[in-house]
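=== Structure Prediction Worksheet ===
Name of assembly: unnamed complex
Input type: mixed (protein and possibly other molecules)
Chain count: two
Listed entries:
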Amino acid sequence: MGDVIEQFRPLFEPRTVAVVGASTKGGTLPNVFIRRIREFGYGGAIYPIHPSAESIDGLKAYRSLGDTPEPVDYAYIAIAAAQVPPLLEQARGRVRFAQVISSGFGEVDEGRQLQEALAAAARAGGMRLIGPNCLGIYTPRGRITFTETAPAESGPVGIISQSGGLGTDIIRRGLTRGLKFSGLVTVGNCADISANDLLEFYLADPQTRVVGLYIETAGDGRRLFEILRGARAGKPVVILKGGRTRQGRAAAVSHTGSLAGDDRAWVALSKQTGSVMADTLDGFIDALAAFQALAPQPRRPTRRVVLFGNGGGASVLATDQFARLGLDVEAFDRQTVEELARLKLPPGTSITNPVDAPVGTLQQEDGRVAESILGAIYGSGRPDALVMHLNLSAFAGRTRAEVLDNLVQAALRVQGRYPGQAHFVLVLRSDGEPALEERKRAFRTRAVALGIPVYDEIANAGAALAALAFHERFVQSRSR
Amino acid sequence: MKAAADLIAEARASKRVALDEPAGKRLLASFGISVPKSVIVQDADAAAAACGDLKPPLVLKVVSPDILHKSEAGGVSVGLERAAAVGEAVRAMVKRPAIENARIDGFLLEEMAPPGVEVVVGGLRDPQFGPLVMVGLGGVLVEVLADVAFRICPITRLDAEEMLEELKGAALLRGARGRAPVSREAVIDVLLKVGGENGLLMTHGEDIAEADINPLIVSERGAVAVDARFVLRK
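=== Predicted Assembly ===
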């Protein structure tokens, strides 16, 4: 396993970067890339490659990939497709990883041959190739980023994206959701390095605790299956699969053939490897946020969920949805009900699960009331997960600003008294009104900074908890 | 018994796109899957004469590369108790319009499996993932109900157990509505012999595009592959 880490170190922590395609006049994507990595704190050597210029963006330029003072760990290449193969051939074994941003290769019919030439040129030049037709790499440990805004802090989430644009979305949306990444590689057409190769890296990488994979074509699906099966869900893997293939189905003549929908193999893969399949980008990010923040409990897979917050109808609807996801929002037993009754909460507060507590209740003791409520629930109710849902619309104009913070802090104190008992997630509901959205955004930022996964709706939290539960059950079933 | 590879090579040599039923059953038998005791005969007299070696009731099936759906063509006769009935069944079968002009390789005369729940076990070559194995509730309604579970080969015993649990009709195997439960163990055993580590699909998946054991009749005591079809890869 150490080998794959060493093999990819120059990609994730490059000491030298070559940039091909930057102009003396500035303004090209490679010029922007140079600016971005400098702003992101990249401290290694940057070598612009240019056929004639003496310097670019204040950096001394070189004629070819083979002419740089030091060998190149990572080359970022965005020039016309036809010019790329000759460029790579000149590397003379002095480039470790080349990422080809340019398009016009295998993604279009007329580019197929050029892609073969590109792969051959990479072999001849002695390097590994990422792309073509991608956007770049984001690796906070190496201070490299292809996006304008990205979290500076590294974290546990490793991403492989076959789409560049979606890779950008994952970073930017992840930023507001508190995701922290060990890396994100856009792999494009995978002419050489495949999503499978990077999956092996992330599974071995000590910084990565959860892997997210956006794939359109599995390429070597067999190898994907074998890697995931061999990993035995040691790290959670979330897969967002686009463009499910119809290849080879039309001609089916047997019963089995006609029953094999396009999705069957992916469903099977998920069940045999414990990988979570997400259906949407939001579902993908929601699940990653849960896995980042919550330590899976395979010995006690998540099933019993307590819903606590304001919004009776919303929690009834959520109870139905959770049941469909295999999560139970069970009524409390007598002991818990009695303990809650002893608190003499205001009328309108339900003292069974789901715990519907109107704002009038939640604002008692400026929100610190949550500590005694949750204390009673945790003490005898033994939930596997607590979903605290706050509808900010109902708080507007009625409570002091610190009530929300106090509610969350109260929950965290109870969490601290019962370590490892329940996953804690927060749902912040709003109605789109600008001032309220701003309040929600600010509050979400504070909650996320505390390591709490935060969701927009109870349904999203339910789907993320179901993903966590699926992973926990798989690990439990395979460890007997 | 012929080695499995020979059965496939033989079918390819005679330009067949699929194994015929006797070859398919020999392939299953070579992997330890129960198939009915049977003989292949060429005409009515031979069929009648062969009855002595088999325990009635018997079933007679036409073997022809031209006939894809034997039942629809009138190429299956069931519940034959005596030699005279078997001879008669062959004579009637060859006169059926769909059979009259077809190439006939012979007739498969076999013992009927004990009654039980009809299950389908299948295989499929996925272009990206290689061999997949399927289990479902079988019989004539299999495609209507579509109550099936797929896995990528090779499967483990736990995978096989989970496949059965995944079926909406899993209760039928446990003995719904006062019926005795049938042998889940026997179905799991067949799934592993078809889709397991050294199973049929892992061994011959390069040659097999699609496979159907339908029905696999599962009783309290075991599972018998009553019909088998293997479509070869081009």
